[in-house]
Amino acid sequence: MSQSLQVTKKQQHQQEEKQQRQYESSYYLSTKSSVSQKSFSTFKSTSHRLKKSVKTEKGQEVVKLSPLPKRAKRTYLAMDTDKEVIGYVIPVFRANHEVVRGLMEAQEEDVTEEGINYVAMRNLFVREAREAMEVKVEKKTRSTHIRESAERLELCRTMEEWSEFRKKMNPDSLMHLPEFIVKPRGQTVWEGKTVKLHCTVAGWPKPRIAWYKNNVLIDAKAHPDKYTAESNYNMHSLEIKNCDFFDTAQYRASVLNVKGEASSTATIVVKRFQEGEEAGPLDPKPHGFCPEHGVTFETTIIDKFEVAFGREGETLSLGCTVIIYPTVKKYQPEVVWYRNSVPLKPSKWVHTIWTGDRAILTLNHLNKEDEGMYTLRVNTKSGFDSYSAYVFVRDAEVELEGVPVAPLDVHCHDANKDYVVVTWKQPAVEGSSSILGYYIDRCEVGTHHWAQCNDVPVKYARFPVTGLVEGRSYVFRVRALNKAGVSRPSRVSEAVVAMDPSDRARLRAGPSAPWTGMIKFTEEDPTVGVIPGEPTDVVVTEATKSYVVLAWKPPVQRGHEGVMYYIEKCISGSDTWQRVNTSTPVKSPRFALFDLAEGKSYNFRVRCCNSAGVGEPSVPTGETTVGDKLDLPSAPGNPVATRNTATSVVVSWAASKEVIQLVGYYIECSVVGTDVWMPCNNKPVKQTRFVCHGLTTGANYVFRVKAVNAAGYSQNSSDSDAVVVQAAISVPGKPTGITLVEAVRDYMVLSWSAPADNGGADVRGYFVDYRTVKGDVVGKWHEMNHQALTTTSYKAENLKENVLYQFQVRAMNMAGVSRASLPSAALECKEWTITVPGRPVGLHVLEVRDTSVVVLWEPPAFDGRSPVNGYYLDIKEASAGEKGWKAVHEKANKMKYMKVTGLKAGTSYVFHVRAQNLAGVGKPSAVLGPVLAQTRPGTKEIYVDVDDDGVISMVFECSEMSEGSEFIWSKNYKAITDTSRLTVVTQGGKSRAIFNSPSLEDLGTFSCEVTNTEGISSSYTLTEEGLRRLLDLSHEHKFPVIPFKNEMSMELLEKGRVRFWTEVEKWTSDCQVEYVFNDVIITQGQKYTMNFDKSTGIIEMFMDSLEVTDEGTFTFNLVDGKAKGTTSLVLIGDEFRELQKKSEFERAEWVRKQGPHFVEYLDFAVTPECDVLLKCKIGNVRAETEIIWLKDSIEIAEEDEDAKKIEMKDSELTFNIGKWVIKQQEKKEKEGKKPPADDVRPPPRPKISKHDAGIYEVFLRDERGKDKSTFNLTDAGYQAVMNELFRVIANSSSDIQILSTEHGITLYSTVTYHHEDLRVGWLQKDAKIAASERVKSGVTGEQLWLKINEPTEKDKGKYTIDIFDGKDGVKRVFDLSGKAWEEAFEEFQRLKAAAIAERNRARVVGGLPDVVAIQEGKSLNLTGNVWGEPVPEVWWVKNDKELQSDDRYKLKFEHGKFASITIAAVTTTDSGKYALMVKNKYGTEAGEFTVSVYNPEDEENKEEKKD
Q1: What is the C-alpha separation between 1262 and 24, in angstroms, rounded?
Q2: Is 1050 a residue whose pLDDT tops 60?
Q3: Are 1133 and 1141 in contact (CB under 8 A)?
Q4: CA angle at residue 579 from 578 to 584, to 5 degrees?
Q5: Span 646-679, pLDDT tens digits
Q6: What span, in angstroms and rounded, lies between the C-alpha atoms of 917 and 892?
Q7: Are 1260 and 1178 in contact (CB under 8 A)?
Q8: Following DSSP, what letter does each residue of 242-263 receive, concatenated?
């Protein structure tokens, strides 16, 4: 029994001596689910079992462990507090028993992989070990003791087996070469699809994978738009997006670890749908058959969007109509939109719609980032079709003239816990001056507060932002700055989270994979409380003149808690290291240093720190010179501009020779002679060729190019040669629709359709080729005509009967010969026996409009048994099937043209024509179209003009003329060859067809077509009714009527005289006037005075007065050659009598005005300066004329104060009511006489008050007569004056201005003058503001203000000041929200902070002298008083060099207020300039003084020498 107790004690003693270890899986530590955390806490609580003493039967006290608690069966489902399963926890191995810990050695590596069999065996041994070590205290017999001894021997054997197994499981023996479990497979895909290569790799340590294309490493991160590489749980994939023909290659996956390398290859073949010539009926069909649906899908894109122009902030939509034939129920194609070959994903900026037949892309709130080449790609199971066009985004209007436009493409890189790098691209337009730099703003996601990251603008288009809060998300924007101001902010970047990259990668990986039979576990490092080691690989990643960025790797030894870092710098040539971030260590292994001296060299190093302390410094980086390492790019090569279309030019140039990290190129254009440069692109392009759209047709342009990288812009290239914007001439397109129209034994007649694109010049002719066909064998092509054909039909002669032939046609214009058309079907040469006509040929259209089009054709070459007697025109929408054809008209049309009306604007149509004879209707012609019913922008119509000579003509204008363009006039769509009826005169872009002798022979439809254009044409139908109207108008022009500008009028003059007058519009010097009254000619005499001013065309007749006998009709008859004119005025009845009374009154007024009189009677006026004036205008006054003013019937004497308010200027009398009159004492004061002491100057009087009310009168009189005027300034009169004064004051008020102070925000409006009776009210959100201690309103001088102290968010909103203006009031509104609030509030906070900073700024407040003279050997002790909140840093300098406290210099800083320096025994070397330096976060100050040490003996010697 005693032996068993001794064994127990020995085992317990071993327990106390050994250190406990625990094993936790790395996955457990990373996930930290609620279940695993609870399990871990339970494990910790049970791993330390309590010791207690028990007594044996003999009373001996032994130490016994508390029994192990029974544990429930472990579950690996992660559950939340509501017992809902939320995930899966990988099982964690834990061994807390000391015996098992003794069997396992500590692992040096952090991560080890174990097999599942090993885990099962380990758990078995743990369970057996626990059972074996359970302490039992009981009375044992000898047999029991022997049995226990045997069990202990069995346990020893088990331990030996465990040790052997552990040796086998050593990591060195587990390592093995990487191998491919699943190899990547080769694939064949269609162009435009996305392909993905997969593989599964095994190996230990975990191998790394790299992908190669034709033995060239693929950098997926550098080309995210093309490649995506992923690795999860030993399963790897490479995704290749938007495959093209050049992606056909051999791809290799290479895996590598410390034991070796393995690789596997796969071939990807990208197949391209055949483009170019379409297959003929005998050629093999292309691969495109869809076995799933049993058809071959054909895709047609119509109604295509063209090159589009938008402006920032606008919404732009692009769309195309897509026709998929044949139609399969429930089958839809894949519609994908691309920008610059990158697929677009729906977002708040991008919306895509597919309606089943139309694809629409909508770009909301355009930004320059949206500029680029947009492609619509329609993928079907038979292939694909695509269409592309460029979208230009112009800059929004700048708020201030001359400021730059907003930067673009703001992105975030290298995000860490408290650090991120922000990059952007420079804008195309710098403004009126060069860009000085950029400001970077940040905003925390979920808020609307933007904070500026840099105080000094940076010129480098890359900036490290520090000081982020870990775990929070941020967005960034950038603003450009030049001398004129700051630009609008750019579009915000994508949100980025401030967190460790490994945590971000783990979150991005998503939920964990299911159990695979492998466990990762980490042996806990017993380094808690250990100072971390030194960082490694400290390097300078970026160095500019604005900042330097450091990067390093965390230390290997860092314990379980996170580490932070201190950064130190040292100027080259010095051994003094200065800590940069003294206040707060950084969390990220990145740091940006600012405020470094440009041109100086520095060394940098990093220290780690945790709660245990600060570690050793890293190895220094080596000398780094502060300055821009990235140079500006060199200027691009000379640009070359070539014609492209009527509104675009192709510009190409040589790439910049010296450029690093090229961002792209900006192209600018200028009209020759203007020197105004405009950007062609607002987003930089990397190609050296660009198509500049949106130019003015016919204008002369020059172009230049500049390169840009992160450092800035290059110099502009030299200007290109001037180029006129016109469509380039190219060879025409291919003719189409070769048709057999007649066949005889030895010849066939062919017809075809002209090419849709004539290449910008008229087609001058055609060439026909032929070849024979025998079965599946075709012969060689041979030319049939050596001279170009001028028609779209040809008689192929000398053929062999019953032989099959194929034909092809080429078109020719001035640029050359086109490619051959598609071969015709095999046509047999044998005589036709049909009776109906052949197919009409030469179909084409003119005058395409939104709702109409004119279709023209030529008769068939084969009439049948009888001549053609009519035609039928059929139409259908291009998207409709064959059953959609319908006739345009019911009766046969005998003309070879027809105007089709009633079309739908924006819809495409196709046409064909059938000919008819007595035998019947023939087969339809080749299909014409599709033709889009849409009026071409800028289209003009023919109009009819009749000139002054009565000549009738038709006029047509064209603004898109090109070289060789001509006007072709036709009648009934036949070229006019007879010039006896019409004479055509053409000048520039205007053509006039003049009718020589208009008659019924000229009735019909006249049309005009402009050659070498895209079908510009128009027509005019001259009807019989229209002809008669034109002839009448022509007659009016030939036999004109004298036009009058004004019919005869009458006016009264002075003395009651009457003036009759009129004005003619056109006349000659031969024009004569006859004056008639009541049909009787009157002549000039005593009663009548006549005048005809032929220089002005005014005819006048004067009468001294109107008498009763003058009632009647007055007439002017004019004769001017063949032109005549008449105008009359009737004066009878009441109208005549009223006019007679007015004449008599005017005569009486004339008599009154012979003496002094009022031209304008006394009235009031308020000037813009708010002076209230009583004024009147007088006339015919002399020096002796008396002018008397009275107020309330009391004359205003000359010595009265009011007399000084009266002024007379230019016959205008004014009485300034509010004029402030200077008193006599003030006059004496001006003259130098001192006024009495008790004479105090009164304040200026108001402009008007009730004291000024009364009745004002003015009298004029002299020997010639007198006159009087009165104004009542009481009651209603006084109120009217006040209302007018209030109106002027209210309208003089300025817009509400905002002023931020350290106390709050002040809103104010300034008026010209303020009157105490003026009612002023302030409103917030249309509610009256109540006065309080925080919000007050008032008046200071002419300023009406509202003060808001300590503003809060509640104070945001619309503020209104309501100023009474005598009626409703004048309101000025200010919206104190958004940017205005942010700027005002930021300024208030800045001023408040500045006030606080000024109060708390570090400074030396006293205690130091300016000069200290001290004898050598004496002790110097100086104390300076220091102030600052927080307590400032203090140091002493001598001659600009910092002093260190040592045996010679004793430096103290006590109580945060007193800084002292003590020099025990001064010597002459201690003389110099000293300074006490103080610094806190609010500022730095130096207290300077001079120390002069002298030697008395030296002084005596000097004195002796002087003596």
Answers
A1: 123
A2: yes
A3: no
A4: 165
A5: 889 999 999 988 888 888 999 999 999 888 999 9
A6: 10
A7: yes
A8: S--GGG-EEEEEEEEETTEEEE
Amino acid at 1004: G
SS3 453: coil
* CA within 13 Å, CB half, 27: 18
pLDDT tens digits along 490-501: 999 999 998 877
866 touches 756 (CB < 8 A): no
708-746 per-residue burial string, b: 16 or more CB within 10 A, e: under 16: bbbbbbbebbebbeebebbbbbebbbbbbbbbbbbbbee
Structure tokens at 1100: 């006048």
Does residue 326 have a cis bond before it (omega within 30 degrees)?
A: yes
What stretches of 191-327 adopt beta strand conformation (E)?
195-204, 208-213, 216-217, 227-232, 235-240, 249-257, 260-271, 298-302, 308-311, 316-325
Cα–Cα distances in angstroms (integers) from residue 65 to residues 60, 140, 229, 1252, 1501, in the given order = 16, 20, 56, 112, 94
CA gap 380, 337 in Å, rounded? 15
Q: Which of 1434, 1439, 1447 minimizes the C-alpha distance to 1407?
A: 1434
> For 1359-1395, what is each residue's pLDDT tens digit?
999 998 888 888 999 998 888 898 888 888 888 888 8
Taken in order 361, 273, 687, 463, the sign of the CA dihedral is positive
Q: How far is CA 186 from its chain centroid?
A: 43
* Largest pairwise CA distance in the chain: 174
- In contact, 112 and 171? CB cutoff 8 Å: yes
And the tokens for 835?
């009776």
CA-based radius of gyration for the chain: 51
The residue type of 1139 is L
With tokens 């580490």, the residue in question is 563
Q: Which amino acid is at 476?
A: F
Q: How far apart are CA 472 and CA 453, in angstroms?
A: 16
Q: Which residue has the tokens 């047709």?
A: 697
**Torsion sign, CA atoms 506, 509, 511, 513:** negative
pLDDT in tens, 412-431: 988 888 889 999 999 998 88
Tell me 7's DSSP state: H
CA separation for the pair 444, 759 (Å, rounded):
57
Number of C-beta neighbours around residue 700 at 10 A: 13
CA distances for 260 relative to 173, 208, 251, angstroms? 15, 11, 20
Q: Which residue has the tokens 């004569």?
A: 1072
Alpha-carbon torsion, ordered 934, 938, 944, 948, to 10 deg: 170
Residues 1170, 1173, 1179: CA angle, nearest 5 degrees: 145
Helix (H, G, I), strand (E, B) or coil at 1312: coil
Give the global pTM. 0.44
Whole-angstrom distance, CA of residue 1026 vs CA of residue 1039: 20
CB 105 within 8 A of CB 508: no
512-564, pLDDT tens digit by residue?
444 344 434 344 444 456 788 888 888 888 878 778 888 888 887 766 667 88
- Is residue 378 a contact partner of residue 301, using CB atoms and an 8 Å limit? yes
Q: Decide if pLDDT at 77 tops 90.
A: no
As a whole number of angstroms, the distance between CA 708 and CA 814 comes to 42
Amino acid 917 reads N
DSSP state of 458: B
- Positive or negative: CA dihedral 753, 759, 764, 769: negative
What stretch of H or E contains 1260? Answer: strand 1254-1262
Half-sphere exposure of 416 (CA within 13 A, CB side): 18
Which residue reads 């010597």 in tokens? 1467
Tokens for 180? 């491919």
pLDDT in tens, 809-856: 999 988 888 999 999 989 988 887 777 888 888 888 888 989 899 999
Cβ burial of 652 (10 Å; 0-12, 13-18, 19+) is middle
Whether the CB-CB separation of 1063 and 1097 falls below 8 Å is answered with: yes
